[in-house]
Structures are given as structure tokens and as C-alpha cells.
Write the C-alpha cells for this entry.
Amino acid sequence: MTLLTLKDFGVTRRKREVLRDVNMTVDQGELIGIIGANGAGKTTLMRAAMGLIDSTGHSSLAGLSPYARGRAVAWMPQSREIAWPVDVETLVRLGRTPHLAAGQRPQAEDFAAVERALLRMDLGALRGRTATRLSGGEQARVLIARALAQETPLLMADEPIAGLDPAHQIATMRSFADLASEGHSVIVSLHDLGLAARHCTRLIVIDKGGLAADGPPQEVLSAARVRETFGISAYFKTTAEGPIFQPLEVVA
Ligand SMILES: Nc1ncnc2c1ncn2[C@@H]1O[C@H](COP(=O)(O)OP(=O)(O)OP(=O)(O)O)[C@@H](O)[C@H]1O
């Protein structure tokens, strides 16, 4: 099943064309890493695909009502601001809002989804803590859990692992991979090309206002591509334990 289709998709912000001619589909079971330099348009692509900012062309999600969209896609923005001093469990439960009718209290299935999300993000010990008093990385894990609790077919997350310690970075990427193997799909923007290579089933490179590459990590992270897009040289090897990518030098 296709979870997202973008056709001849483009975004212009303040008269400046940020993205043009984007064509892609996302099927079930994919863990897609969106990579590209600062300012390339990764956030713009995800927000516009969901209809949060204006675009041209077609996005299968942009035309949905907010209610339908909340059941089709969960969104974890780059900004980690938590506005209210509520406990972690209550905050994660907010992820169930799109599944509740106006005024409806959470049901057993909603509490079960919250438990699954807390478990996936290793938040059992923090569930009673006030979310605003957690560390930056802990808050990020709570916000990922809130998005996971939504249990949508598609999850989009903007730099979700930035600021997490190495163990939680790996665990979070593994959770996303698990979701993909369960038939959901996950789109994440990230700057860590090593983790992208290791965990993503597909990488999309944004460069010069469009999709510069789209495919499996070993194809996308060619020496020529990483030089062209990121201005670096890198070591890449496919091993029995999976792909290993290590940036080496700035070459541009
Ligand atoms: N509200 C806005 N008005 C005008 N230009 C904007 C606006 N938001 C983003 N842009 C521009 O669009 C381009 C893409 O920004 P975007 O945030 O999508 O990049 P990104 O790839 O996510 O970058 P980063 O890796 O730094 O997070 C940038 O040049 C940015 O300056």
C-alpha cells in the first residue's frame, strides 16, 4: 500500500524556490532517511508534504482534513519545546488525540498504545516525571514516544535522534526499523550518515532544490555523491553486520 505520493511537487518560500519537481512514493515497510546539507530543504519537504506549508503539485497527504491527517501521519517537529509541565505519561497520551472523538476519554486501546510507545522509547522509569524538567535528550525521547503512540501508518520525524546519547540513537533507529518491519513506514531527516546508512532501507538526498538521489544506502552514498552533496570523503563498507559509513575529510 502506498502511504505517500508526491507528484511534480514544489515549495516556494518568500518568492524563493526551495524545492521543485519532487516525485516520490512511500510504500509500507520503509525506513527512509532524508539527508542533505543545512538549508537543503529536508524540513520543508516533510512539512509541505503534510500540508503544513503551501506547495505546488500533488501530495496525497496535504489535502486531508486535520482529523484524517492525524490518523494517517504522525509528526515530530525539530523544535523540542514542551509547553506544559505535565507528566511524561500524560504527554505521550496526547498522541492518541486524533483517535478520540470530541470530549471522549481515552479507552483501553489508547492506554495500550501509550504503554507500547513508552516501552519502545525506554521511558518506563521516567513516566511519572514532569516532562519540562527532563534533559533535552530525554524530552526528545518523550516527543518521539508521543508520535509513536499515535500509531499511524506513516511517521515523519525531523532530526529525531539529534541530541540523544549513542545508545538511545541506536535504540531509536532500531525502533523505527521495527515499525517498518511491522508494516508502518518512517521518514526521518538526519545528519548522521553512519546511522542513516546502517538503519535506513532507503535514502533520499536533497540538494540544489530537488531530489539528487533516491535508493538503497549503498547506492546513494557513493564516493561521488557524498563529495558532490556534502563536500566530504568517506569510508563505506558493506559488512556482515551491515553497512559501515564513516565520514573522513572535507574535500570541497
Ligand atoms: N519561513 C521561511 N521563510 C523563508 N525561507 C524559509 C523559511 N523556512 C525555511 N526557509 C528556507 O528554506 C530553505 C530550506 O530550509 P529547511 O529548514 O527545509 O532546511 P533543512 O534541510 O531542514 O536544514 P537543516 O539541516 O539546517 O535543518 C532554507 O534556505 C531556509 O532558509
In short: Residues 178 and 184 are 9 Å apart (CA to CA). The two ends are 41 Å apart (CA to CA).
